[in-house]
Design brief:
Blueprint: E1 4-13, E2 21-31, E3 36-40, H1 47-54, E4 62-67, E5 70-71, H2 77-87, E6 88-91, H3 103-113, H4 118-131, H5 147-159, E7 165-169, H6 177-194, E8 197-202, H7 205-208, E9 213-218, E10 221-224
Parallel strand pairs: 3-8, 3-9, 6-7, 7-8
Antiparallel strand pairs: 1-2, 1-4, 4-5, 9-10
Helix pairs in contact: 3-4, 3-5, 5-6
Bound molecules: adenosine-5'-diphosphate (ADP) (2 copies).
One adenosine-5'-diphosphate (ADP) binds next to loops.
C-alpha cells in the first residue's frame, strides 16, 4: 500500500458565494512507502490546503484520502483524530513549540499524551535531538534557541510518536538560505534514518532536487516536474 494516496481531491473556499476560489481541482497523488516527495508550487497555489487535507486537519469537498491503505472517508471523528495524532507528523514553517517548556519536554509531552512511559519518552527525545545535531540544547527553552534550532526541535516533535507519514509545509521557509540548507539536511537525515514516507512542500528548487521525486501543483492540478 502507498503511505499516502489522494484521489480526485477538490476544494473550493466560499462555496456558493460570488468570490469563491476553487483551489484544488481533482488532485491525484501518491507517496510510496519510504519515499520522500517534494510538492513544488508558488505561494497561493494551494499547498497548505492540500497538506491539511492529507493530514486530516481539513476536509475536501470531493475525493478520497488514503493513509497506509486505509480510506479516511466517513471515518468516525474519534478514529480520525487518533490517526491524525498517531500516524501523521506535521511540520509548519513556524515551529509552534510550547514556550514554557524545554526542547526536550516539547518532544516528550506528545509521547506522554500518547501513553508512553516518561523514561522511554526522554530517551527517544534525546536520540532525536542527537540525530539533528542539537543534543546539547535539550534543556533550553525555545526563546533561548536560534531559529534553525527551534525548527530542528519541531522536526523531532513531529517524529516523536513514530508516525507513518510526515507532512511538511515549507519546513525551512522562515530561515535564511545558509541556515535553511543545514536545517533541511538535518530533516533529510531524520526522515531517511527512520524510513519514513514524506510529502514536503517547498518553493526552493534546490531543496526539492534533494528529494526522491518532485510533483508540481499548477492551476489546482498535479503535474510531474
Ligand atoms: P499555498 O500554501 O500554496 O500558499 P494555500 O493553500 O494557503 O496556498 O491557499 C490557496 C488559495 O486559497 C489562496 O488563494 C488563498 O488565499 C485561498 N485560501 C486559503 N485558505 C482560505 C480560507 N480559509 N478561506 C478562503 N480562501 C482561502
Ligand atoms: P481555527 O481557529 O482557524 O479553526 P485551529 O485553531 O483549528 O484554526 O488551527 C490553527 C492551525 O493549526 C491551522 O493551520 C490548523 O490546520 C492547525 N491545526 C489544528 N489542529 C491541529 C493539530 N491537532 N495538529 C497540528 N496542527 C493543527
Amino acid at each position: 500500500d502507498a503511505a499516502l494516496k489522494l484521489t480526485g481531491i477538490s476544494k473550493t473556499y466560499n462555496l456558493g458565494r460570488p468570490n469563491e476560489v476553487q483551489v484544488l481541482r481533482g488532485v491525484d497523488l501518491e507517496v510510496a512507502k519510504g519515499e520522500i516527495v517534494a510538492l513544488v508550487a508558488p505561494s497561493g497555489a494551494g499547498k497548505s490546503t492540500l497538506l491539511h487535507i492529507a493530514g486530516l486537519l481539513d476536509t475536501a469537498d470531493h475525493g478520497q484520502v488514503q493513509i497506509a491503505g486505509q480510506d479516511m472517508t466517513g471515518l468516525h471523528d474519534r478514529r480520525r483524530t487518533r490517526i491524525r495524532r498517531n500516524d501523521v507528523g506535521f511540520i509548519y514553517q513556524f515551529h509552534h513549540l510550547l514556550p514554557e517548556f524545554t526542547a526536550l519536554e516539547n518532544i516528550v509531552l506528545p509521547q506522554l499524551a500518547n501513553g508512553a512511559a516518561r523514561k522511554a519518552a526522554e530517551a527517544r527525545a534525546r536520540d532525536l535531538l542527537e540525530t539533528v545535531g542539537i543534543a546539547s540544547r535539550a534543556d533550553h527553552r525555545p526563546a533561548a534557541l536560534s531559529g534553525g534550532e527551534q525548527q530542528r526541535v519541531a522536526f523531532c516533535r513531529a517524529l516523536a510518536n513514530t508516525p507513518r507519514l510526515l507532512l511538511a509545509d515549507e519546513p525551512t521557509g522562515n530561515l535564511d538560505p545558509a541556515t535553511s540548507d543545514q536545517v533541511f539536511a538535518a530533516l533529510m537525515e531524520l526522515v531517511r534514518g527512520s524510513g519514513l514516507s514524506a510529502l514536503i512542500a517547498t518553493h526552493n528548487l534546490e531543496l526539492a532536487a534533494r528529494m526522491d521525486r518532485q510533483i508540481r501543483l499548477d492551476a489546482g492540478k498535479m503535474t510531474t516536474a
